[in-house]
């Protein structure tokens, strides 16, 4: 399985593209891919282009050789799971009902045992088991985010793209989610793309890191050891840092006088 | 850890299945309870009024007619040509308005959305105002006011669809457009009302309060076909409407054509509400509140909520109409007054007292 991005230019205003001439390839052997970069650089736009939620002004995204724009929405939904960053209120939907939305394309009016098992596993693995009957809008921000990840997991797709899935989680939960996604890549051979603002979480857990920098271009794409260095951090974020090594992976220490 | 290949412990898996089954059972039972209450209120609607027939006699008259064994032609006519059609029109109107309100609230992600906030009622009101005050009608005969109300109630929806097309069909754009259209049509109605004859104003005022008191079986047939067709069409879309509550991007990522779905729902609801409002006038409150009452008891899953809202809306209108007939005799209050007067405190009580859980 492969996602190929060819000469992708995309934006919400044609005169000011957010992404400019992006060329990338993601493979199911890549493991967990974290996308990092400063605010407004086009990380969300990139993953939204992959799921055909935004149409590029130039270039194309292909999934196993097929242009995503030529695939039906239903077909895309069966191949790509999307966990959004900011979600609308879910009204009085319960956690169980919200997670079960992930099975929309696979179940009929009544849920089959198989659907219930998948929903339960997704909820359990995210620690939501006891909250099944609680209205989604009564959850804390962190619990809400876990629920959205569980909904993405319940979709059981080949590709999972997550827009800042750990932004409201505590450090333990951040590590847990990142490690869970990495295991998912390795055991199920999925392509998992995760936008992450914590460079150290990305460096600690990701198999590959994609760094985007302004104006909407790819700065580096490779293993944490290859791409997390002083020069790339300076170029992407405009800050000075020291790089140290922890458990065989780079760790970034930002210098306070550089901001 | 291989999350998808490891089996769940048997006990846990059974607990989830039992919880799900219990949740479905609760929802279905609630719907049946509302339908049973509706049936009881329909019998009360037939039995009670300025002339009391009594519950048992009402049932006997209904059965006699159905079995072709009519014993009292006067009462039979009274029930079958007066009270039963009135009760049925109330039930169908309540069901239709509640379904419309429920779908609008879910598709626009706005708990205040109903036929008022989408401008449908204001458009219908303007059509009726033109007919009552200056005699300007688009058709002649007994359905002149009905037709006027119907045609003008479609105008705000067309405007909303046009603005959505220009600005993207986000819920906020649609609600704001609807509210703008509501104010515009209300202002236009006010101009004609200021210049109107007092007698015309009284008739218009009575229409605006909403009533199901005068109708024929032909009216019932038209309303029944409308509510049934529109109701089942919307029920078929219920799973997709559920996804809209998670946001447009998510719904789109799940394969839903978001703008097309929202527009289709708006058009179906408008057609249904326009026809209902044309016959009954502006019965407020039901479309807004019946879905919310049901949400308190069974949550927001539209697959069950639409049916529950329909039954609850029907129950509210029939009960309110019956109360309006008997509470202030010899006067009869319009159903719109009763729905607001009795329903609002009940709704407030439920908001304050009920804890929101589903299972």
Descriptive report:
The complex is a heterodimer of chains A (259) and B (359). Chain A is of the alpha/beta class and 259 residues long. Chain A has one domain (2-258): P-loop containing nucleotide triphosphate hydrolases (Rossmann fold, 3-Layer(aba) Sandwich). Chain A is 33% helix and 26% strand. Chain A has a six-stranded mixed sheet with strand order 6-7-8-3-9-10, sandwiched between helices. A four-stranded antiparallel sheet of chain A has the order 2-1-4-5, with helices on one face. Chain A has a two-stranded antiparallel ribbon with strand order 11-12. Chain B is mostly helical and 359 residues long. Chain B has one domain: ABC transporter involved in vitamin B12 uptake, BtuC, CATH 1.10.3470. Chain B is built from 14 helices and no strands. Chain B has helices at 10-47, 55-66, 73-107, 120-134, 144-167, 171-194, 198-209, 217-236, 238-244, 248-253, 258-280, 286-298, 302-326, 335-353. In chain B, helix 4 packs parallel to helix 6. Chain B starts with 9 loop residues before the first helix and ends in a 6-residue tail after the last helix. Chains A and B meet through helix 2, strand 6, helix 3, helix 4 and helix 6 of A and helix 1, helix 9 and helix 10 of B.
């Amino acid at each position: 399985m492969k996602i190929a991005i060819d000469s992708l230019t995309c934006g919400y205003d044609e005169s000011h593209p957010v992404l400019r001439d992006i060329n990338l390839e993601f493979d199911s052997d890549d493991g967990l891919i974290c996308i990092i970069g400063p605010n407004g650089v086009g990380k969300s736009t990139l993953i939204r282009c992959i799921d055909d939620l935004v149409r590029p002004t130039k270039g194309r995204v292909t999934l196993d050789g097929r242009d995503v724009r030529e695939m039906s929405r239903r077909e895309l939904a069966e191949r790509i799971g999307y966990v959004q960053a900011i979600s609308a209120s879910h009204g009085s939907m319960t956690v169980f009902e919200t997670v079960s939305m992930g099975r929309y394309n696979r179940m009929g009016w009544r849920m089959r045992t198989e659907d219930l098992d998948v929903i339960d596993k997704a909820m359990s693995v995210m620690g939501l088991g006891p909250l099944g009957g609680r209205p989604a809008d009564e959850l804390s921000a962190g619990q809400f985010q876990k629920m959205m990840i569980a909904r993405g997991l319940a979709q059981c797709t080949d590709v999972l793209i997550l827009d800042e899935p750990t932004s409201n989680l505590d450090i333990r939960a951040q590590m847990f989610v990142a490690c869970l996604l990495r295991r998912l890549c390795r055991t199920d051979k999925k392509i998992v793309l995760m936008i992450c603002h914590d460079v150290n979480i990305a460096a600690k857990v990701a198999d590959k890191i994609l760094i985007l920098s302004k104006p909407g271009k790819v700065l580096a794409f490779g293993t944490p050891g290859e791409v997390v260095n002083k020069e790339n951090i300076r170029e992407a974020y405009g800050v000075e840092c020291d790089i140290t090594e922890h458990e065989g992976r780079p760790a970034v220490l930002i210098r306070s006088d550089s901001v | 850890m291989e999350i998808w290949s490891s089996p769940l412990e048997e006990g846990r898996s059974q607990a989830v299945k039992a919880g799900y089954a219990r949740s479905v059972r609760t929802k279905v039972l609630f719907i049946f309870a509302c339908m049973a209450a509706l049936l009881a209120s329909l019998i009360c609607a037939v039995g009670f009024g300025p002339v009391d027939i009594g519950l048992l006699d009402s049932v006997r008259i209904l059965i006699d007619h159905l079995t072709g064994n009519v014993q009292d032609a006067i009462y039979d006519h009274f029930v079958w040509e007066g009270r039963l059609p009135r009760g049925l029109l109330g039930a169908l109107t309540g069901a239709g308005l509640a379904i419309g309100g429920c779908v609008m609230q879910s598709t626009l992600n706005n708990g205040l959305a109903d036929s008022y906030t989408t401008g449908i009622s204001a458009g219908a009101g303007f059509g009726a105002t033109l007919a009552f005050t200056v005699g300007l009608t688009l058709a002649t005969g007994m359905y002149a006011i009905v037709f006027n109300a119907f045609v003008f109630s479609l105008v705000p929806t067309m405007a909303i669809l046009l603005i959505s097309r220009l600005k993207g069909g986000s819920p906020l754009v649609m609600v704001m457009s609807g509210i703008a259209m509501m104010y515009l049509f209300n202002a236009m109605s006010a101009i004609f009302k200021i210049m109107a004859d007092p007698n015309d104003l009284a008739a218009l005022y009575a229409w605006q309060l909403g009533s199901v008191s005068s109708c024929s079986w032909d009216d019932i047939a038209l309303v029944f076909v409308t509510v049934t067709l529109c109701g089942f069409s919307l029920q078929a879309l219920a799973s997709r409407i559920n996804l809209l509550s998670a946001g447009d991007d998510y719904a789109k990522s799940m394969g839903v054509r978001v703008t097309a779905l929202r527009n289709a729902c708006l058009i179906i609801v408008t057609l249904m509400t326009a026809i209902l409002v044309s016959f009954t006038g502006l019965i407020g409150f039901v479309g807004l509140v019946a879905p919310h009452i049901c949400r308190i008891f069974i949550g927001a899953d539209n697959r069950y909520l639409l049916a529950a809202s329909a039954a609850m809306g029907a129950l509210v209108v029939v009960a309110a109409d019956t109360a309006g007939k008997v509470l202030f005799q010899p006067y009869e209050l319009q159903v719109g007054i009763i729905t607001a007067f009795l329903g609002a405190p009940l709704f407030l009580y439920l908001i304050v007292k009920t804890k929101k859980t589903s299972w």
